[in-house]
């Protein structure tokens, strides 16, 4: 009888573990700061996810899980994990988009390379900003913020809740926030780059023997780097880190 009781206890707990894995693993696999280039070994990543599940065990509420089918709950948890990963990834995407915008304006997208964080092809500044913001994130207690967000997600949307009344339009608002914040952070550099292009055009008008296109990349690169150093990393760390919260996640359900 003891072995039967232990087996039933193990069976119940392993199902709870799988349900917790369905939500949390999606976040760990999709969050740029914990992407395949950061935690490349699947064994290590799954061990980390398992430790997080053990830490969040009181939030899993096993008594609500028997009311529905396990497959239905797993699908719900996967959808919630996808939404949570998307909302928490917005600050990292902002840093990437800012780099893409600046490289596009300084005509440097021809030198695209592999982003060391996301593992995808991106411009030089985009990959640099993505890597830099990941470092800023971890230096500002990023893992503590992530654990707090994961635990609070079970308060906002407990396991087994229905997706009735789900606000799908919030995804469009997230995209709007992403583009609006990215353009806002890149705007000072864009304005100065536009002025530098006008000055290069005037220079070419009065000095036709010198090709302005040979100078444009070097001039605009120096201007972009100098201007961004005055405000860029401070603005990225302040504005983007404040967006690493569950406010947008809550709007999907309320």
TrEMBL record:
Compartment list: Cell membrane
UniProt keyword Membrane present: yes
Primary location recorded for the protein, binned into one broad class: membrane
GO CC annotations, alphabetized: plasma membrane
Segments crossing the lipid bilayer: 12-31, 43-60, 80-102, 123-147, 183-203, 215-233
Domain of life: Bacteria
InterPro entries: T3SS_IM_R, T3SS_SpaR/YscT
Name this protein carries in UniProt: Surface presentation of antigens protein spaR
Organism lineage: Bacteria, Pseudomonadati, Pseudomonadota, Gammaproteobacteria, Enterobacterales
């Amino acid at each position: 009888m003891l072995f039967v009781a232990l087996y039933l206890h193990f069976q119940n707990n392993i199902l709870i573990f799988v349900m917790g894995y369905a939500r949390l693993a999606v976040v760990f696999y999709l969050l740029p700061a914990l992407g395949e280039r950061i935690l490349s070994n699947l064994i290590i990543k799954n061990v980390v996810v398992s430790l997080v599940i053990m830490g969040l065990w009181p939030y899993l509420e096993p008594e609500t899980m028997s009311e529905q089918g396990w497959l239905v709950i797993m699908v719900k948890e996967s959808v919630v994990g996808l939404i949570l990963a998307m909302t928490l990834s917005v600050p990292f995407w902002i840093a990437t988009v800012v780099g893409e915008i600046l490289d596009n304006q300084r005509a440097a997208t021809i030198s695209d390379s592999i982003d060391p964080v996301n593992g995808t092809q991106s411009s030089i500044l985009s990959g640099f900003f993505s890597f830099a913001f990941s470092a800023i994130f971890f230096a500002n207690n990023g893992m503590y913020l992530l654990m707090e967000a994961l635990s609070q997600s079970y308060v906002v949307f407990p396991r087994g809740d229905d997706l009735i009344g789900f606000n799908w339009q919030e995804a469009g608002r997230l995209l709007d926030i992403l583009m609006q914040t990215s353009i806002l952070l890149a705007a000072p550099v864009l304005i100065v780059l536009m002025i530098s292009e006008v000055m290069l055009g005037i220079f070419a008008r009065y000095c036709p023997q010198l090709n302005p296109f040979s100078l444009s990349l070097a001039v605009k690169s120096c201007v972009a780097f100098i201007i961004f150093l005055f405000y860029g990393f401070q603005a990225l760390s302040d504005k983007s880190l404040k967006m690493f919260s569950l406010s947008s996640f809550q709007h999907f359900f309320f």
